[in-house]
């Protein structure tokens, strides 16, 4: 059977089992007088979080009639102290309906420190005399309160309308056999958001309302991977370079997919000012399936060599985020230009970058010595640490990493010392060991396999980019994100 007729759906099958289990347990939901009690937005409840299977405190954002239990409700909830990517629709059987909390204003009589639950552990100091909202078990009267048309309620409704545009609107996507739960809102056509999920073509990323529609498209899809030019291939990993002005349909499909995993207010629709570098895994039928990508402005006033970066969730924690970053610097080396990612960096983006920048500095330092690829072979040059005098311009020239990024990395890892002879880099034995381990065990870009010459830009393209640059200063684009614990 050819690949095109054999869309792998094995991973979907296991999800179907989960869905069945969830439907069965829906029958246990709490009912009051023939239907469930409808809880208002703003109340807090304990909800069994899908990700950790534990009850966590969550705030109800919006109720809607249940799709599976007649007279019941589903609730869109935000887990207190957790990233919004974990927000989602939960049925009543996953909510502890016996403990419902309502906010009450209280004035502090003594100072206290409150640690927020969840994964951010933020501390908040409550001072004497300050008014706070405290959550207490709701009484029957609280729950029966009809919504009045007070200014506070009108304000809450307005806030909810604004939030609506940011709320995750798609429950599931299917891509190359993976069922993926999106994290954030993406402006796919509204009709598709009412289906149980969206089915994407693995190669052109076009979107379909059913598995049948997707399969029938894939049997005639003219592509077997991203459009554009294959500029790198080693083992099963390949990079395709795509011009957003030429392959604008694919680029738009890619941005829609990326937006599902990037929490930004707006999607940038004009793909023309960008090149896209799509990383793919080649399968046994010579089809190229997307792993992630980064985009790069054709002409960046800020010398950015990367605008947006994404590794799809099913490929995270495999080192692909760093692989994409390494590739972006390889292109800068060929171009003989120094580059930097578009700022600001997200927390996770900064972690991935710092890790790559440190690796590049170690590579530069260790490259000055003869070794056989093990920390042991370096011991003859060091007792406890390796010291090397460098000049920063040389380090910039070799790595193509911007000076400021190098300095911030050296400062944060405490590996540089300034003296009368210039800058001295000091690497501990454990750092040298970690470098060799990383080099051996993680996936790295092999420059020998790059077949690329920097694209020549015409005047029109360059001026288009500058216009985009200005627009982007006021409009947020797909920023750096989604490198989760790479
Ligand atoms: Zn297709």
Automatic annotation (TrEMBL):
GO terms for cellular component: NuA4 histone acetyltransferase complex; nucleus. It is an enzyme of class 2 (transferase). The active site is at 342 (proton donor/acceptor). It is found in: Nucleus. Its EC number is 2.3.1.48. Signal peptide: none annotated. It holds the Pfam family MOZ_SAS. Its main location: nucleus. SUPFAM superfamilies: Acyl-CoA N-acyltransferases (Nat) (SSF55729), Chromo domain-like (SSF54160). GO terms for biological process: double-strand break repair via homologous recombination; regulation of DNA-templated transcription. Residues 165-454 form the MYST-type HAT domain. One of its GO terms (molecular function) is histone H4K16 acetyltransferase activity. Keywords: Acetylation, Acyltransferase, Metal-binding, Nucleus, Transcription, Transcription regulation, Transferase, Zinc, Zinc-finger. Belongs to the MYST (SAS/MOZ) family. This is histone acetyltransferase.
């Amino acid at each position: 059977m050819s690949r095109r007729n054999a869309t792998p759906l094995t991973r979907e099958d296991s999800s179907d089992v989960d869905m069945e289990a969830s439907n069965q347990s829906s029958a246990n939901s709490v009912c009051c007088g023939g239907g469930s009690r409808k809880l208002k937005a703003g109340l807090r409840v304990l909800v069994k979080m899908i990700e950790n299977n534990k009850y966590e405190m969550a705030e109800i954002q919006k109720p809607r009639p249940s799709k599976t239990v007649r007279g019941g409700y589903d609730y869109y909830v935000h887990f207190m102290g957790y990233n919004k990517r974990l927000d989602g629709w939960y049925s009543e059987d996953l909510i502890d309906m016996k403990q419902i909390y309502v906010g009450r204003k209280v004035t502090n009589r003594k100072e206290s420190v409150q640690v927020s639950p969840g994964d951010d552990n933020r501390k908040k100091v409550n001072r004497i005399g300050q008014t706070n909202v405290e959550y207490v078990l709701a009484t029957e009267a609280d729950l029966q309160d009809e919504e009045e048309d007070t200014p506070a309620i009108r304000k809450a409704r307005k806030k909810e309308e604004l939030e609506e545009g940011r709320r995750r609107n798609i429950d599931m996507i299917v891509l190359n056999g993976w069922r993926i739960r999106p994290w954030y809102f993406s402006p796919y056509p509204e009709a598709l958001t009412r289906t149980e999920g969206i089915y994407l073509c693995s190669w052109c990323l076009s979107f379909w309302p059913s598995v049948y529609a997707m399969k029938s498209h894939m049997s005639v899809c003219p592509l077997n991977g991203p459009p554009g030019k294959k500029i790198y291939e080693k083992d099963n990993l390949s990079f395709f370079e795509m011009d957003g002005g030429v392959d604008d349909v694919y680029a738009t499909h890619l941005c829609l997919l990326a937006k599902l995993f990037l929490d930004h207010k707006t999607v940038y629709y004009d793909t023309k000012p960008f090149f896209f570098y799509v990383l793919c895994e080649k399968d046994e039928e010579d089809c190229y399936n997307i792993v992630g990508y980064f985009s790069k402005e054709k002409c960046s006033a800020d010398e950015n060599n990367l605008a947006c970066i994404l590794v799809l969730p099913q490929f995270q924690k495999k080192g692909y985020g760093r692989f994409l970053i390494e590739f972006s610097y390889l292109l800068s080396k060929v171009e003989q230009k120094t580059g930097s990612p578009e700022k600001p960096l997200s927390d996770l983006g900064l972690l991935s970058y710092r890790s790559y920048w440190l690796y590049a500095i170690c590579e530069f330092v260790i490259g000055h010595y003869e070794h056989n690829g093990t920390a042991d072979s370096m011991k003859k040059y060091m007792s406890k640490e390796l010291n090397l005098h460098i000049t920063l311009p040389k380090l910039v020239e070799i790595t193509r990493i911007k000076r400021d990024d190098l300095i911030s990395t050296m400062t944060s890892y405490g590996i540089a010392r300034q003296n009368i002879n210039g800058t001295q880099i000091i690497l501990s034995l454990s750092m040298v060991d970690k470098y060799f381990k990383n080099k051996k065990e993680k996936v790295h870009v092999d420059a020998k396999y790059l077949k690329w010459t920097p694209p020549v830009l015409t005047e029109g393209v360059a001026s288009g980019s500058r216009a985009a640059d200005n627009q982007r200063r006021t409009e947020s684009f797909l920023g750096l994100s989604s490198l989760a614990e790479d």
